[in-house]
Design a protein that fits this description.
There is one protein chain. The protein is mainly α and 111 residues long. It has one domain: Four Helix Bundle (Hemerythrin (Met), subunit A), CATH 1.20.120. The chain contains 5 helices and no strands. The relative contact order is 0.19.
């Protein structure tokens, strides 16, 4: 399994046309901020602070076919919503999954 689902990417690229690279760049700029928020939130007392950034990261990652990253974000969101402290356990995997997705997305938008 690759970090990016090409079927999803090809579909959104077709829909977005010339604006697709800008969409990818926006994602590549915003996802690290969400990951940083999650890393910081993982060190706070309440796990409910993980829900918002995890949900946003899950949604944007799914939209661009970064399904492995989306799965980790979904696990964080789910565990945080159910009050399961193991939500924090998934956070360290986010950066690795993002790095993998980043590399593939850059190749896709680089002529």
């Amino acid at each position: 399994m690759t970090a990016i689902d090409r079927v999803i990417v090809d579909e959104i690229a077709e829909i977005m046309g010339e604006e697709f690279p800008d969409l990818v760049r926006t994602y590549l700029d915003s996802a690290p901020l969400l990951i940083h928020q999650l890393e910081n939130a993982a060190h706070q007392d309440g796990i409910d602070v993980l829900i918002g950034p995890a949900h946003s990261l899950k949604a944007s990652s799914n939209d661009l076919g970064a399904l492995q990253l989306a799965e980790v974000a979904q696990a964080i969101e789910h565990d945080a919503r159910t009050g399961n402290a193991s939500a924090r356990d998934h956070v360290p995997l986010l950066q690795l999954r993002f790095d993998e997705a980043h590399a593939e997305l850059v190749k896709i938008i680089t002529p």
